[in-house]
Design a protein that fits this description.
The complex is a heterodimer of chains A (161) and B (285). With 161 residues, chain A is mainly β. Helix content of chain A is 9%, strand content 47%. Chain A starts with 20 loop residues before the first strand and ends with a strand. Helix content of chain B is 56%, strand content 4%. Chain B is elongated. The N terminus of chain B is likely disordered. Classes of the chains: A mainly beta (161), B mainly alpha (285).
């Protein structure tokens, strides 16, 4: 996994801002900013290879959730694949996010956490639970059940926390 | 932007602050080439997407024909595109072919998809009034979503509509998550935490063209749905009705009639101001 796709698409240092209009000597052309186009091209490096993708099935930001409505500071998500999945509970933690992970079905698993600027691994308990902090930005997990190391890892869809 | 391209191009903010004499706050963001495009739409010189325009454009430039590309470089270099010429969008067959190739690991095919649909995703983000940084985030997340699903699309020929829908959902996700949204074209003043207009760094002479301002003013008096639809219709390459339907979440069948009503209303507003719609849009080429 290349860390390239995890960079923020737009940099404040750039002189041009996304969706501005570039004016060449012959006239204006509405363009996709180079940084945005480059980030889109780099996304190709993040394509799943030898992993199964657990799609984002539920996101309290978009989908109705009574618990989320009661506490808007909590974001819940479910990633699913027929071979398994994961529930996430995300809360603000200073400048970043605190993630509570629950692997489905409950089992001890290794979770490779891929987030902005770093990749690290946590191990869930026998109930499939783990907690960790991540910076805001893109986020994905690669889950490997410890009792079946030969099984294909499960990769969650990229989301932005 | 690379230094080279920056040297040959000026970047201007097309925003309310550039029009000091107008009712700045009410004017929508409308790029200069979009002003010209609206003129074409109103005067009927721009065919509807997916209809005659595809045929007309395919006679001019085929982005997947090397020979045509060479011609395009000389005849239609960026910034020198003659009025009325628009790049052809991907045909469903081409889109499906590129999706298949990208799924097989062809980076060139992926880049071609990015080139073909990057503008569409940007337009969806802009229609949701996202800040530039958020619009970039939506674009990046949308492409990551495609790379995860590129070998699982039920109909690869409709990848444009799939991207538009995904981008729209990412916009909603981002808006739902955000505590507050900074409107495009405006910035937060760190001192007061209030919205302030962007600095008027745009080329005053370029923006002072009265007819362009009138067009922006007239455009701003349209309903948000009309503005969103017309701006999508002005994209280059032009999205198909299928993609517009996905981007705006409206039935395909209503696009044509809505387009007609919106253009009629725009024409009426322009005529009401004494501006001949046929001559609106400053000549720049």
């Amino acid at each position: 996994m290349s860390p390239e796709p995890l960079r923020r698409a737009h940099s404040a240092e750039e002189d041009a801002r996304p969706w501005d209009v570039r004016v060449d000597e012959g006239g204006p052309v509405n363009v996709v900013p180079d940084s945005v186009r480059a980030a889109a091209r780099r996304a190709f490096d993040a394509r799943p290879v030898d992993t199964l993708v657990a799609d984002l099935m539920f996101d309290s930001v978009l989908d109705h959730d009574r618990r989320a409505a009661a506490d808007p500071s909590v974001r819940t998500m479910r990633f699913g694949h027929r071979s398994g999945g994961a529930d996430l509970r995300v809360t603000d933690r200073g400048e970043g996010r605190r993630v509570s992970l629950e692997v489905l079905p409950a089992q001890r698993a290794s979770a490779e956490v891929r987030c902005t600027g770093s990749t690290f691994t946590v191990t869930t308990d026998d109930e499939g639970r783990a907690e960790f902090d991540v910076p805001t930005g893109l986020f994905s997990l690669v889950l490997r059940p410890l009792r079946a190391p030969q099984a294909k890892p499960l990769q969650t869809s990229w989301v932005r926390l | 932007m690379t230094p080279d391209s920056a040297a040959g191009a000026r970047v201007v903010r097309i925003g309310p602050a550039a029009l000091p004499d107008a009712d700045a706050a009410s004017l929508p963001q409308l790029a200069l080439d979009e002003v010209e495009g609206l003129t074409d739409l109103m005067t009927g010189s721009a065919p509807e997407p997916g209809l005659a325009e595809d045929d007309a454009a395919s006679d001019e430039i085929d982005p997947f024909d090397d020979r045509a590309d060479d011609e395009a470089v000389t005849a239609v270099t960026p910034g020198h595109r003659p009025a009325g010429i628009r790049r052809a969008n991907l045909s469903p067959e081409e889109a499906a072919m590129l999706v298949g190739a990208a799924a097989a690991g062809d980076r060139g095919a992926w880049d071609a998809l990015v080139d073909a649909y990057g503008g569409l995703i940007g337009a969806v983000a802009r229609n949701h009034r996202l800040s530039p940084g958020d619009a970039g985030d939506v674009s990046q997340t949308t492409w990551l979503r495609l790379v995860e699903n590129v070998d699982r699309l039920s109909d690869p020929s409709r990848v444009g509509a799939w991207l538009a829908t995904t981008a729209r959902r990412e916009c909603l996700r981002l808006l739902g998550r955000a505590k507050r949204t900074v409107l495009s074209g405006e910035e937060l003043d760190p001192g007061t935490d209030r919205l302030r207009l962007a600095t008027p760094e745009a080329d005053a002479a370029l923006l002072a063209a009265e007819r362009d301002a009138e067009m922006r003013s007239a455009f701003g008096r349209l309903t948000p749905r009309c503005r969103d639809l017309l701006q999508l219709l002005l994209l280059d390459p032009a999205p198909s009705y299928d993609e517009i339907s996905a981007a705006l979440d409206i039935p395909i069948g209503s696009i044509g009639p809505t387009r007609g009503r919106c253009l009629e209303k725009l024409r009426g507003i322009m005529e009401g101001t004494g501006i001949n719609p046929a001559t609106a849009g400053s000549p720049r080429r």
